[in-house]
Amino acid sequence: MSVGCLHVSSEVAGPPVDDPAEACESHASSSNEAVHLQRRLLSLGSELVTLRNHLHVGGAQLGVGGALPGGALPAALPGRKPQPAVPPRAAPAAPAQLPQQPPPPEPRWRNTLPLPAPPPAPTGGANSGGANSGGDVDDLIHLRGPLTEDAVVRALQARFYHNKFYTWIGPILVSLNGYTDTSNPLTLSAARAACRPELARLVHDAVRHQADTGYPQAIILSGVSGSGKTYASMVLLRRLFDVAGGGPETDAFKHLAAAFTVLRSLGAAATASNENSSRIGHFIEVQVTDGALYRTKIHCYFLDQSRVVRPLPGERNYHIFYQMLAGLSADERAALHLEGRGAGELRYLAAPPRRADPDDAARFHAWKTCLAILGIPFLDVVRVLAAVLLLGNVQWAEGAGGAAEPAGDAELAAAAQLLGVAPGALLRGLTARRPPRAARAHVRAPATPAAAAAARDALAKALYCRTVATIVRRANSLKRLGSTLGTLSSDSNESVHNQSRRASSAGGSGGSRGGGAAGKSMAALNDAVRHATDGFVGILDMFGFEDAAPSRLEHLCANLCAETMQHFYNTHVFKSSAESCREEGVSCAPELDYVDNVPCIDLVSSLRGGLLAALDAECAAGAAGGAGAAGGEAERYVGRVRATHRAHPRLLEPRPAHPRRFAVRHYAGDVTYDASDFLEANRDTVPDELVAAFARRGGSGGAGAGGGCEFGFATHLFGAELKALEAGGGARGAHFRASPTSHAAPLDAAAPASTLTQDFHTRLDNLLRTLVHARPHFVRCLRANATEAPMVFERQTVAKQVRALQILETATLMASGYPHRMRFRAFIGRYRAVARAAAAGDGGEAAAAVLQAAEAQAPAPASPAAVRWAIGKRHVFLSEGMRQVLERMRRVRRQAAAECIQAAWRRHRQRQRAPPQAPPPAPRPRPAPIGKTCFTL
Ligand SMILES: Nc1ncnc2c1ncn2[C@@H]1O[C@H](COP(=O)(O)OP(=O)(O)OP(=O)(O)O)[C@@H](O)[C@H]1O
Asked: Residue spans with biased composition (Low complexity) (predicted)?
């Protein structure tokens, strides 16, 4: 389905109309009938709404705003009482959260219709009960009474207990996670697209804008960990496929779904705040051309590598390990040296005893199938994963001269065998160190047990995150083969639309081109240029704000990311609207008091003395002088940070005081960071001696490492580093980055080395560069409670997030400021149909005339949202209320025009189909006059 078609069919029924406004004029009389009918429908709607305003449903008086557009009547009309799709299981919890409130009034309809008990609704307080509880106000700008945080939370609560988890603030969507679907594996295949009209609307808007303007679109999900970002992102992506990608039967969908299933198990883990937390941030870029999906790309941001070797107390390692232990067959276990080993026997997994997930085995089998779809050998990946687990059980004891000796060789030998290297080579890689720049290859110093344990953990992390990176690369690089169109064996993630288009164009022009190389390359070039300039629809699901105890470097990076996204939102929503009003001399009351988080971003990421720059400096100093004890380095780092930012309002003292800890006041709360592992995590290195063990058998990179590696997949994981070693003549006591980076040369104390945080910062910068060129669509995600309990609304938890995400400020701006501006020409182009006679020209005067005409035609406002506009130097400024009025009028006009065209078309068809009429009978001959009776005058 093309977007043009989609766009029109979503607004008007019947044949597509290029410019319904023009049709409207040329069929004036029919159009008048249509408008008349439409008005009658609207007036009927408002009568029903007026009637409903006298009825209190669940203690909430029904709002009016947003109920009428397009004649859409509110769902909860008398006789159509709201019925929760999921009966509120924890209904008593709501009154418990509202201790000072009287019990909710008995809804009237309950006496006559004794169906499921209505959910408890908030009452009491200044905004109690009716007018402002806002249960049926689907857009917060239409809330009645003073717009306060309390009113917003009450409205969300009232909606929540009516199973309405999505609420608009103008064009911004607020999504409230009610934890009604916690068993969802959060994969693309499991996303249920059909039941989320608000998310569907967002996708339609993004695709339509992209088609209309060619401009890239980005749907940006933000919120704390557990607020439902990943859930929503999967639903959105699924919907995007339905709209533009040809649906779930296409190869593109199957490939992407397989990639997400594989990555979900590898990148999600149970944390203190979310049993199913995504530890990999995603930006899913979907290239849409002419309304059809052309290509998809997943950008992954993997930070939480320490979890592989050291999950935080009370948390778990990545899901895949538990799923693997549950799903491997006996033979597979034996082959992987895992027989008799459960999570309790494997050190990296042995954290807290938890109930095993009954779905683990099934999910593992699905994971295996999806690996096959991506063309990645299952055995290769599980060999690496099993080796990681076995490495965790390799312990070190102090041998002669303080040198590290493995305590028990079985795991070391098993891990070596799985990785395809000789046990001796692995042992040497883990324990022997050449002093940097040792002149001769045989000069080696033994590692201490602590250094050997660090090397073991570094290897485990490197193996894991490089496997993830390889899978992502594979998923992104799937290319289409024309001959396998429509089959899973095709190597593609492009759309079937383009497959068929290309197939047909190839077929059509085959004769003339005759397969000539020049013709083909020209076509390829044209295609490349065309798609390089096309926009995309992106879905961003990055790390949510987290307050783990204690928080590590990864959490600091994740929280920096959340701060950056918050800043992006502030700039886009608040700052730019105020600045453009100022620039064009438009007074924009009210002055919004939003919280600017730039000071916090500066504290963390400023190049001059920010927390991350100071950490890099400390790492470089440690590398130059030989790393000292981790604890000492961490204390020195924290001491320097405190000294530099003594008076910074966002840097706090931890409670209780601790020499290796500091606290930061983030936009969503205070977080205490423990810097004990900061330096090690930031360096993120693996010794070159260890990497050399993976050189292919017969290759020179592992010179002297003892035979080389015979496991191609493992060699591939370190491919770039092994090449660098080969070029440099083998290991020389340097280090490589454990995570895959573009910088594959050995790190050198003399040369500036990249670090984990530098890489992350660069990638975040690049992401922002992409986002600033896109039109954003924001989804603000909230979690209903802190305990992941289904259908429990904790007011304090929600209020805290409402404050952090500046939802009240957004609603105030949308309700009474000028959040929208449009160039005169664009404005006239869109709203000419509203007042065609007034729209002469395309300048400010014509825009003002359209707006005045629209105001004159608009019915009396039923909502407190301001219906305001202003004309600036180059732009029309609109309040959200005004925009909605204009959109509604435009929709009515288009609808009327479409109905008019339909009627004309039907008449035409009817005339065509009517059976041919018999020729009119010949007139009967008049009888001849009888003679003599003829009168003459
Ligand atoms: N709209 C929803 N309806 C029902 N259940 C939901 C909804 N959104 C999320 N959930 C459930 O809530 C849990 C947390 O959601 P999710 O993992 O998507 O949050 P998140 O914001 O992505 O968290 P993180 O940042 O930690 O990855 C999941 O078990 C998910 O199935």
From this structure: 74-83
